[in-house]
Amino acid sequence: MPKATETTLEIDLNALGHNYLYLSSIIKPETKVLAVVKAFGYGSDAIIVAKELITLGADYFAVAYASEGEALRDAGIETPILVLHPLPANFSLVLNRCLEPSIYSRKMLLEFIAFAEDQKQRNYPIHLKFNTGLNRLGFGKGDVSFISETLSKTESVKVKSAFSHLAASEDLSEENFTRTQLDSFRSISKELSEKLGYSPILHTLNTSGIINYPDAELDMVRTGIGLYGFGNDPQENKQLKPVATLKTVISQIHYIQPGETVGYNRAFEASQITKTATLPIGHADGISRSYGNEIGWVTIRDQKVPIIGNVCMDMIMVDISSIECNEGDEVVIFGDNPTAKDLSSSIGSIPYELLTAISPRIKRVICRK
Fold first, then answer.
1. Is 304 among the catalytic positions?
2. Comparing C-alpha atoms, which of 78, 109, 75 is closest to residue 91?
3. What's residue 185's pLDDT?
4. Predicted local confidence at residue 233, as pLDDT
5. Model confidence pLDDT, tens digit, residues 173-222
6. If you classify domain 244-367 with CATH, what class do you get?
7. What is the 3-state secondary structure (H, E, C) of 84-95?
8. Would you list the DSSP string of 280-303?
9. Does the N terminus or the C terminus of the chain have fewer Cβ atoms within 10 A?
10. Are residues 336 and 242 in contact, defined by beta-carbon separation less than 8 angstroms?
């Protein structure tokens, strides 16, 4: 790749392909893959990512909200799309764009059936979410009879899949809890299939689940963060490649005299002559104010330099006293070194948060490294 001349987010489609193929290689050939492309493709570009994943063989996509699915449809993507958190206000959008809603409560099931009947639908695909311990969204085991009885009275919808969400699949110290979740879902899905008279697609594994619980593959697996180069474990990360690299440039170099300060609230005070670089990226671009004051760092000429002072809306300052560099030089915020995991860990966060916070005003550059 040519050196950055402005703040850019490079999206490496070869790394995306590597991650998809790796994850696909450790599941059974017949197991379907649902690729999660919500939150603008985890901060990258959902449309570009989805189109690449189609060429790689993805069977399904998942988004959080109906508007995200609409954007994929507007881009010509015809692959089935599961909407994980639809709202009744968006039922028309769901139907008009052939999106498939996750139904997670009795109220929502009745409302969607009434809507589908009003629209004269037949066998419209829905997905049933069951709560087995995450306690966020989902039917309970005691709802299976209600679901089957309700569905027996209508031909407007049909269950395409049933699924649950693991709470701690990455944490092997929580294996007993995860196994309890998996057993609960197996029991629920068995009862559901018997009462429906047919077997929907079953899925409950996320990226870490794919790695740690291969015996629970069922019919389909869901992968989100793994596609973008991160697992939730150092061993997982060794097998994956970061897709996104955030770069910027040095706007200006200053020499700060002892006793002078840098940035808002005079948060950094030089104890000796300090060479600093100002970079055109800030908290409006997703670099949290939790960084700064020597928490977090960037890389210039393969050397780590700390972020100093408070992060500004559009700028950060770094201490470059220890290296030779010039105005206009390239700066890596995250990529291979530091990774988004490295940087987010410095403030007690996770790569999900850092990746999805990257502002849409940052230019996306598609590449194949």
1. no
2. 109
3. 98
4. 76
5. 999 999 999 999 999 999 999 999 999 999 999 999 999 999 999 999 99
6. mainly beta
7. CCCCHHHHHHHH
8. S--GGGT--TTSBTTBSEEEETTE
9. C
10. yes
CATH code, residues 31-228 = 3.20.20.10
CA distances from 259 to 255, 269, 310, 322 (A): 12, 6, 17, 19
Share of residues in the chain with pLDDT > 70 (%) = 100
Q: How would you label 1-28 residue by residue, b for 16+ Cβ within 10 Å and e otherwise?
A: eeebeebbbbbbbebbbbbbeebbeebe
Q: What is the rounded end-to-end Cα distance, in angstroms, of the chain?
A: 7
Catalytic pick from 28, 107, 190, 264?
A: 264
User: CA–CA separation, 84 vs 104, rounded Å?
Assistant: 9
Give the whole-angstrom CA distance, residue 206 versus residue 85: 17
Q: Is 3 a catalytic residue?
A: no
| Strand pairing category for 8-12 and 363-367 | parallel
pLDDT given at position 3:
87
Q: Which of 38, 129, 247, 341 is catalytic?
A: 38
Q: Which two tokens stand for residue 323?
A: 């290296």
Q: What is the pLDDT of residue 231?
A: 86
Q: Which residues pair with 129 in a beta bridge?
A: 163
Residues 323/301, Cβ–Cβ less than 8 Å: yes
Q: Which amino acid is at 266?
A: R
How many Cβ atoms from other residues are within 10 Å of residue 154's Cβ?
14
The pairing of beta strand 268-269 with beta strand 297-300: unpaired
Positions of the chain with pLDDT under 50? none
pLDDT digits (tens, 9 = 90+) for 13-39: 999 999 999 999 999 999 999 999 999
Domain coordinates in residue numbering, the chain: 31-228, 244-367
